Amino acid sequence: MSQNLSPDHELDLDVIARVDAVASALDQLRVRFSVADQPTTPVADQPTTSFLEQLCRWAVDTIPGAHMAGITLVHPDGTATTPACTDPQVVDIDADQYRTGQGPCLEAAATRTVVRVKLDELPERWPDFAAAVRGLGVRSYLSAPLRLADDHVGALNLYSVDGHGFSDLDAALLTIYTTVGETIISLSRDLDRARHDLSGLKTAMENRGVIEQAKGALMASRGIDEDTAFASLVDASQRENVKLAAVARRIVTSLDQHR
């Protein structure tokens, strides 16, 4: 025998189902992040964009009425890009925002607030952007800010062809996804810095090795001590306006050729 549910009860069940769907999606992303679960494909070797694109797809799948999603990143020089999206049309819409300097994703990034707006509200808020996207068919926008510490790094954006304008629950669920997006971006930046530091360290070690070789060669060929040999390298570097390692490498190469 079936039992009729009250509208409030049905609403509660819908909210629970949607929250569960988001939780499931985030758990799947956690698994993808686990190096232990994927020993042959470490996270460090996977493109950051693949994680961001998956995040966008899950946002569309779990937030009813969302037809497209994208990530906006605002760079230190003020330029903005769309590194991940679910539909090529998102790139065109975002490009109109970046070109006009107006729109929901830029406002969300700049103000650190969730921005919800319907098509008929665009002309008053962002007239240039409204004119640019007129006729594209997108009628509702929802953008939640992405940030790292005090940096405004961008926004996670949803686009809908329906005029519902998204709900408070939609906004709340989207902000859950932004925490994952922020983690992905943060890990990517940390990895880039680590790789840069490692590259610099390797270069420094290589340079130190060739400088030591050049010092030894000068000491042997001229019968001078270590300090004098190093001073000779420094003098040549300053006189020729080239790096010390380059002078040392030239000396070592010259000696190798004459052996």
Entry keywords:
9 helices, 14% strand, 259 residues, five-stranded antiparallel β-sheet, 2 domains, Beta-Lactamase, alpha+beta
Task: State the domain count.
Answer: 2
What is the beta-strand fraction? 5-15%
Q: Structural class, from secondary structure content?
A: alpha+beta
For the biggest sheet, the summary is: 5 strands, antiparallel
The CATH topology assignment of the largest domain is Beta-Lactamase
Helical amount among residues, as a percent range? 55-70%
Compute the CA-based radius of gyration: 28 Å
What is the average per-residue confidence, as pLDDT, rounded to a whole number? 77
Stretches where pLDDT is under 50 for at least 5 consecutive residues are 5-9, 35-46
- Per DSSP, the total helix count is 9
Total strand segments? 5
CATH level-1 class of the largest domain: Alpha Beta
The H-level CATH homologous superfamily of the largest domain, spelled out, is GAF domain
Largest beta sheet: what is the strand line-up? 2-1-5-4-3
Helix-strand pattern, N to C?
HHEEHHEHHEEHHH
CATH architecture of the largest domain: 2-Layer Sandwich
* Anisotropy-based shape: elongated
Give the termini separation: 98 Å
